[in-house]
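Dear H.,

Thanks for agreeing to be a second pair of eyes. The structure we're designing against is below in token form, covering all 485 positions.
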């Protein structure tokens, strides 16, 4: 009620004056005993927390997932237990390269992270709006980010750094082709698909394993911006995606996505012609068609951006019984990196921040640490095994053994499987001539500023995917194919 709430210090003492600091006489210096001034300034000095190393600029909302089709033959995850079942969730969408204050309408991939608060723990689906990624080895991830973020000397984004790196990695061409296509610049977060991208696994009640890829199909329809429209959008409003999502939910125009899966029986992985754990490749739908699962709806805006969006913490390590990992080493790199980032960005007890807290009971034996606010498991035992039956492991959730063999080495996957061109070529050939032209021109604008050798290297990569792709890019850049080889 206006006028009724009373201003206090964090200790609860009344603040008598929030307009005038305490000074010695009307023109004199501040007094150290003005503890309200000291507290207010000290808190302000610490308001900024580290931003996410990438995906720093984002928007979030709460919502609901509803099962529409029975997939219990593939997974025992309780979230999918019956048609009609609903689960609460929180989603955060983001751009990748820009900092926390970056403009939304930039050519970039978009993060698509969803935290499902299931009765068996949080399941985080930390994906993107693209089905593939630039890399196959997590060792290269810091390099990727250094290449797409600011140059260490100029502090500016650098086409040279960006394209020098991308063009030296043949496996990046598929993702680069998507980012340079019309889909590389969504009109808003409501108008893009989402993908788990990696291969994950499903485990059913009979303890059978399947490989699975997750797809979120946008029900609002795909809409994109041209580079020109984006420049105008950024000029008018740097928060165009945040505004679009927030206002749509505010007026009860709730955005929705259909969750679908591609499912591969475990044994197929040995013989399928596409490496099933290669994050730079898709599984053609004719081989593994999309199977309906349910609908995700976003229907509640956060009350407070910092508390709920900035402090949200997603990790692919958060899986639930019936959903698990795969031999994809990119995924393995991520299983470490996210929790590590959360411990740095939010602290070791980040799971106690309400947006991150499981909606089911949880007991880990992890105790103490900065900002432990949940009672710290009180007087219960802190060790296991114990004679009291407290917090026992749950072997009934163990997964079927996974056969893996091979000698330890720094295996060069580029030699083992060097076909990084047929899938980008297929994607190029699927595009209409108009979309191909858009791809050429977006590429030419984006690569402008890189030196000729880098441009020629990109053209050579595109030529390997499809001659017309390389030729189109060369023409748009203004380089003759005779000068390329
Ligand atoms: C954010 C690491 C690949 C999607 C992040 C963050 C880190 C990270 C450290 C910041 C986390 C935080 O501070 O909360 C990595 C590494 C990768 C990788 C090491 C590869 C080895 C990917 C891939 C995808 C992806 C392949 C999508 C398929 C995201 C998303 C976010 C994110 C959506 C933002 C999550 C949010 O909204 O809070 N990544 N990442 N990343 N990453 Fe990755």
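And this is the sequence the design step returned. I haven't edited it by hand at all.
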């Amino acid at each position: 009620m206006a006028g009724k709430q009373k201003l206090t210090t964090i200790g609860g003492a009344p603040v008598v004056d929030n307009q005038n600091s305490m000074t010695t006489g009307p023109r004199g210096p501040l007094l150290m005993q003005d503890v309200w001034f000291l507290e207010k300034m000290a808190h302000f000095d610490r308001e900024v927390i580290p931003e996410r190393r990438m995906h720093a600029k984002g928007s979030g909302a709460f919502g609901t997932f509803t099962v529409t089709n029975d997939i219990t033959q593939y997974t025992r995850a309780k979230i999918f237990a019956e048609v009609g079942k609903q689960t609460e969730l929180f989603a955060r969408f983001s751009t990748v390269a820009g900092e926390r204050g970056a403009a939304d309408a930039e050519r970039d991939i978009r993060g698509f992270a969803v935290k499902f608060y299931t009765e068996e723990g949080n399941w985080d689906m930390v994906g993107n709006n693209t089905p593939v990624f630039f890399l196959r080895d997590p060792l290269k991830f810091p390099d990727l980010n250094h290449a797409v973020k600011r140059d260490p000397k100029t502090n500016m984004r650098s086409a040279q750094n960006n394209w020098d790196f991308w063009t030296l990695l043949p496996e990046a061409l598929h993702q680069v082709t998507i980012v340079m296509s019309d889909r590389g610049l969504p009109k808003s977060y409501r108008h893009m698909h989402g993908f788990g991208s990696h291969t994950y696994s499903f485990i059913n009640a009979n303890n059978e394993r399947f490989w699975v890829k997750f797809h979120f199909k946008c029900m609002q329809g795909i809409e994109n911006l041209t580079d020109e429209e984006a420049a105008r959008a950024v000029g008018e409003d740097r928060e165009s995606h945040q505004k679009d999502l927030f206002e749509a939910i505010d007026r009860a125009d709730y955005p929705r996505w259909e969750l679908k899966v591609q499912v591969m029986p475990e044994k197929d992985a040995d013989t399928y012609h596409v490496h099933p754990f290669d994050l730079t490749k898709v599984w053609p739908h004719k081989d593994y068609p999309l199977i309906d699962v349910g609908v995700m709806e976003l229907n509640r805006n956060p009350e407070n951006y910092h508390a709920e969006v900035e402090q949200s913490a997603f990790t692919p390590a958060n899986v639930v019984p019936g959903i698990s990992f795969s031999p994809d080493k990119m995924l393995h790199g991520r299983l470490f990196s996210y929790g590590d980032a959360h411990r740095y960005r939010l602290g070791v007890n980040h799971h106690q921040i309400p947006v991150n807290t499981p909606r089911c009971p949880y007991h880990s034996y992890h105790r103490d640490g900065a900002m432990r606010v949940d009672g710290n498991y009180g007087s219960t035992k802190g060790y296991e095994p114990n004679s009291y039956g407290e917090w026992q492991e749950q072997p009934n959730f163990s997964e079927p053994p996974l056969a893996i063999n091979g000698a330890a080495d720094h295996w060069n996957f580029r030699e083992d499987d060097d076909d990084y061109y047929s899938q980008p070529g297929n994607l190029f050939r699927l595009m209409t001539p108009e979309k191909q032209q858009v791809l050429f021109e977006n590429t030419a604008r984006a690569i402008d500023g890189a030196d000729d050798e880098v441009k020629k290297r990109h053209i050579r990569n595109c030529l390997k995917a499809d001659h017309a792709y390389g030729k189109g890019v060369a023409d748009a850049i203004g380089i003759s194919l005779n000068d390329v080889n």
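Two observations from my side: Residues 311 and 346 are 7 Å apart (CA to CA). The mean pLDDT is 97.

Warmly,
E.
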